[in-house]
Design goal:
The protein is built from 14 helices and 18 strands. It is α/β, with parallel strands linked by helices and about 425 residues long. The strands form three sheets. The chain has a nine-stranded mixed sheet with strand order 11-10-12-13-18-17-16-14-15, sandwiched between helices. The chain has a seven-stranded mixed beta barrel with strand order 1-2-8-6-4-3-9, surrounded by four helices. It has a two-stranded parallel sheet with strand order 5-7. A hairpin with a 4-residue loop joins strand 17 and strand 18. Helix 11 packs across helix 12. The relative contact order is 0.12.
Length: about 425
Amino acid sequence: MNKAVLLLANGQVFEGNGFGASGCIIGEAVFTTGMTGYLETLTDPSYYGQIVTQTFPLIGNYGVIHPDFESEKSHVRGYIVRDFCDKPSNFRCEGDLDSFLKSNQIIGLCGIDTRKLTKVLREAGVMNGMLISGDSAEAKDAFDSLNDKNKKDALIQQIKSYTIKDAVKTVTCNAVKIEESADVVFETSAKYRAVPVTKDGLKVNDENEAMKNGKGKRVVLWDFGAKANIRRELLKRGVEVITVKCDTKASEILKLNTDGVMLSNGPGDPSENVEIITEIKKICDSGIPVFGICLGHQMLALAQGAKTLKLKYGHRGGNQPVKQLSTGRVYITSQNHGYAVDNDSLPNNVELSFVNTNDGTCEGITYTNIPAFSVQFHPEASGGPLDTNFLFDDFINLINNPKLFKDYKQNFERVDAISYFNSTIKKTKEAN
């Protein structure tokens, strides 16, 4: 293995061994707490521009399995693990992690104390970093700079100046090349019991039963960096799915005679996508049912007058608890985001449907003026918990009955719900 280091924007250096590609890259250093699903993490377009640290110590033990990809390739800037398995063992294995990173030109770093790095990012907040690995001329110059204060300071200034640009435009429609037909999707899912899950937790193994409510309906998947499993979950419910690029105009979407619009996940700062947000507002004005996930959730909120904010270190992993305010039930969810909708900016035409039980941030919204709802977490997560998979059924029900939420405002006292939640969070903080 090559010598490799991570240089953070605060000047800290983590030295270990390199795997995957060699060279120098700068990215936004983040951590994810998922114990499984590293392939989904590596191929999730939402990680565009980021150096991802896995808190789980052993990664790569089941190798690389192409059917589990969320998009055609990896979008991370760099990848950090405590230990990576170079001899994977799994009956579905098609290759090893080292070769995968090399083929995607991604630098990997292993052998460092990932717990220490995670604590740094958790306490100081997400920050930029530089990965240096190998013996290229660029890498050698960077290694030499670490031993010279002036040169190291120059590197740090370069690291601090890095910003993620054109994230959505770069990753849109990357998952299209791995799309499959509905029959293939359901057959594959049934083999591994990754079939639709109802609100009471029951799995719907019968294809006809799962697809009966969506038959004859068409959904446009507005791709801002969509994970492939969003499309799969829609197909499992019988709808026809048409994927369109991020820069598609609302008028073009309306010409497709769609029954519903899915706003996908994606990377970057949601507020930067001004043109897309304008088009989303036009879709909202049309009265077509809308379901937003992650970035789609944030941009839908922006289109309706809310604001977003950047979180200190984000929510990334498969064990994030959220509370459904209408029932009081807590669900375990998979998440990957660094921004959130600002609770204090929510307009009067919304119901705060889900909240994060750790920090009180907005995790879901139901709109009372339009047939639309959205969630910050990933109900389609694979690998991840299936607890909130039923939200796709809610979307199909909304398509079949667009007036489903029209009169809901009469039965919801928004101020009381938010006040109750804020007081609960305050008591929790005071207790700690």
